[in-house]
Amino acid sequence: MDSPQSLFTPLSLTQALPFLPLAQSQVDYASEQRSNPDLFQQFEQEGSVSVMLVSGQRVALPFKSLEQAKLGGGLLRLALLPGEYLPSCLRPLAGAPSALYFLGSAGNQHFFALDLDLAGRQLSDEPGREQVEQFAQSAQSRFKWLDVKEFAPRGLSRDVGLATSALALSIWHNAQRYCSYCGAPIAPCENGWAQQCTQENPARILFPRIEPAVITAIVDSQDRLLLEHNSAWEPSLYSLCAGFVEPGENLEHAAKREAMEELQLPLGEIRYLGSQPWPFPASLMVAFKARALSEAFVVDYEETDCACWMTRDEYTAALATGRMSAPGKASVARYMIEQWYGREL
Ligand SMILES: [Zn+2]
């Protein structure tokens, strides 16, 4: 019998993932502009502001979007509003914190996200808060609201990128409301990309929290893929070995440690495939492919309750009978499985 090494083809490890829906970056972040507190007003005077709306971890689309996309087969787009559409209480005042995040520019079109949840919390005066509530209520009925996982597989890639950034910032600003050093309230700054402590002098700047996680497509010497079922998932869903990076370790170590923890499976060569943000709430998924040094594994029966090596034919049959289902169309796991499978799922 051939040794595992002789059957192994290193080329199969080196193909990167060509497309990841949440990792698109067609808009120039124009990060050098973020420190300008009058950015919105300046772009608005040029008539070149487009505002998307985010609320409750969802983004706004034109109301009939889904029906039109079904009829025409087109891609879903965000509702992008001109600056004049915003009521006066939602416009940024010079020097005051606002709920508008500057997402970047494409030519002379400048994109902002208005976070309706943050806007509601920022206003302390009663008439202003009422105006925000009315605007938010009418927006709920005038637009179609989707979460990014629903939007991404059918969305224009520029708009999916904008939605991902806006959602990541919104989740962060609405979760982190106080300075983690002194406990004082914070205020957004840098057009949404940072926060500053309102107590410390000079003001301490706080940056968004991002939690890296590794996910690994593990293959054996016969190029079978290891699929595993997590006890918290629906019974048919099978995916790849994944977990958070711990303090003090690098990404490769995290991939090897997770395979040992979940499967007691040692990994050999590891190759980077790609990465995409997963802002639910703050992850960055880093994808690897790795070869197992053994075929034997033992599931931990805590996180993972079942795992199996699958050939492509076995996987095709498992999907056809419904014994297995694939991860969602926005997830990096799906694209990793497709890369191994050789075609779209
Ligand atoms: Zn502080």
Automatic annotation (TrEMBL):
Q: Does the keyword Nucleotidyltransferase apply?
A: no
Which parts form a coiled-coil structure per UniProt?
Answer: none
Which enzyme class, named as a word?
hydrolase
Q: Which residues form the Nudix hydrolase domain?
A: 208-338
Which key words tag this protein in UniProt? Hydrolase, Magnesium, Metal-binding, NAD
Q: Which cofactor does it need?
A: Zn(2+); Mg(2+)
Enzyme Commission number(s) from the entry:
3.6.1.22
Reaction it catalyzes:
a 5'-end NAD(+)-phospho-ribonucleoside in mRNA + H2O = a 5'-end phospho-adenosine-phospho-ribonucleoside in mRNA + beta-nicotinamide D-ribonucleotide + 2 H(+)
What PANTHER family would the database entry show? NAD-CAPPED RNA HYDROLASE NUDT12, NUDIX HYDROLASE, NUDC SUBFAMILY
> Family per UniProt?
Belongs to the Nudix hydrolase family. NudC subfamily.
What protein is this chain from?
NAD(+) diphosphatase
UniProt organism field: Bombiscardovia apis
